[in-house]
Amino acid sequence: MKYLDEYRNPGIARRIVDEIHQVTTKPWVIMEICGGQTHSIIKNGIDQILPKKIELVHGPGCPVCVTPLEKIDRALEIAAQEDIIFTSFGDMLRVPGSQKDLFMVKSEGADVRIVYSPLDAVKIARENPDKKIIFFAVGFETTAPINAMAAFQAKREGLKNFSLLVSHVLVPPAMKALLSSPQNRVQGYLAAGHVCTIMGIEEYKPIAKEFDVPIVVTGFEPLDILEGILQVVKQLENGKAEVLNPYSRVARNEGNKAAQELLKKVFKISDRKWRGIGEIPMSGFELIDDYAEYDAEKIFGMGNIEVDEPQECISGLILQGIKKPNECAAFGKSCTPQSPLGATMVSSEGACSAYYSYAKR
Questions:
Q1: Are both 165 and 270 inside the same structural domain?
Q2: 231 and 213, same domain (yes or no)
Q3: Whether the Cβ atoms of residue 137 and residue 109 lie closer than 8 Å to each other
Q4: Could you tell me which of 165, 166, 184 has the C-alpha nearest to residue 175?
Q5: Strands 162-169 and 278-287: what pairing?
């Protein structure tokens, strides 16, 4: 527990909190991008020990939460077909589509399986040549390399019964879109450390300069988050807008070059719709033409599916940092983890899930 405990040391945490209180003279709104950071903040009560002038708002950094509703419906339609083995990480099975979720499809007889890696799905394809195996490839830049590796491995082996239903999204374009919105309240960002581990920090520098916002790469332990907040506040108080990386023990400034090269071999950047936010130009990955035979949407000829979000669900406003989960009239009432209206209540990185689990206030 040594390396875990040292990033949860209460004495050091108190010293950082005291310094945050000392340097804060004005009200500031800071957004943590990643849903994992949101859960750590709420679970550890970090939002409760900061100066009242500092407001933390929760960003769209939950890939399950921003997967479009029509993409979920496509997954449900594919999974229900005969001779299909539909695979996914566990979070996706409970995300509601317009009528049902993958668990319900499974209960109706579909072969839907939880896997812990897309390479497990490749193995299933290898062992079941008479079946079509689909992996639901959801995530940010963090999970994109292993999904790219799955497609790369399937192509190298010549597997014809494996495909990806791709819903990858990219963090920097979303940050830029939020800052460009007339409803924007964000004055500083805590960037997602695991995304920077893959992609580095160079993409954030033009954003910091264009919108005059400090961006600090932040981890997930309490001390990581407190240090990130401190460095954002110091910059805001001093009129600076730089990209800093105090999470350098994990995230190198240049990122993971090998992972970046793999991504270029399999994916290309494209426009992508974000659930609750809308389409953001050049904000996602899709398979390049050389990998079209592994694109589930092309294989199964999914047409345009247009569906509407439940009107009482405000997850879109939550993902943009405009509202908090406890400001939703449905929160904890008609919307619970057992009967969710939106993905933010289901995902282990969802803001509504964090508030329901740790802070029903």
A1: yes
A2: yes
A3: no
A4: 184
A5: antiparallel
User: Quick one: which of 135, 93, 87 has its CA closest to 111?
Assistant: 87
Q: What are 176-226's pLDDT values in tens digits?
A: 999 999 999 999 999 999 999 999 999 999 999 999 999 999 999 999 999
CA dist 50 and 201 (Å) reads: 27
| Interacting residues of 211 by C-beta distance below 8 A, sequence separation 6+ | 176, 179, 241
The CA distance from 313 to 329, in Å, is 9
Domain range for residue 220? Answer: 2-54+172-244
The label of the residue with tokens 């405009």 reads 322
| Rounded Cα–Cα distance for residues 356 and 351 (Å) | 9
210 shares its domain with 106: no
Taking only the tens place, the pLDDT of each residue in 251-276 is 999 999 999 999 999 999 999 999 88
249 exposure class (CB count in 10 Å sphere: 0-12, 13-18, 19+) = exposed
Give yes or no: residues 24 and 160 share one domain.
no
Distances (CA, A) of 245 to 31, 50, 196, 242, 255: 16, 21, 9, 10, 12
Amino acid occupying residue 204: Y
SS3 84: strand
pTM of the full structure: 0.93
Grouping H, G, I as helix, E, B as strand and the rest as coil, residue 26 is coil
- Residue 50's Cα: distance from chain center in Å? 25
Positive or negative, the Cα torsion across 111, 90, 58, 179? negative
Between CA 334 and CA 118 the distance in angstroms is 34
Q: Does residue 80 lie within any of the structural domains?
A: yes
Q: Using the 8-state DSSP alphabet, how is residue 295 labeled?
A: B
Residue 258: how many other CB atoms lie within 10 Å: 10
Geometric angle at alpha carbon 351, from 65 and 239, rounded to 5°: 105
Q: Bridge partners of 269?
A: 285
SS3 7: coil
3 state SS of 18: helix
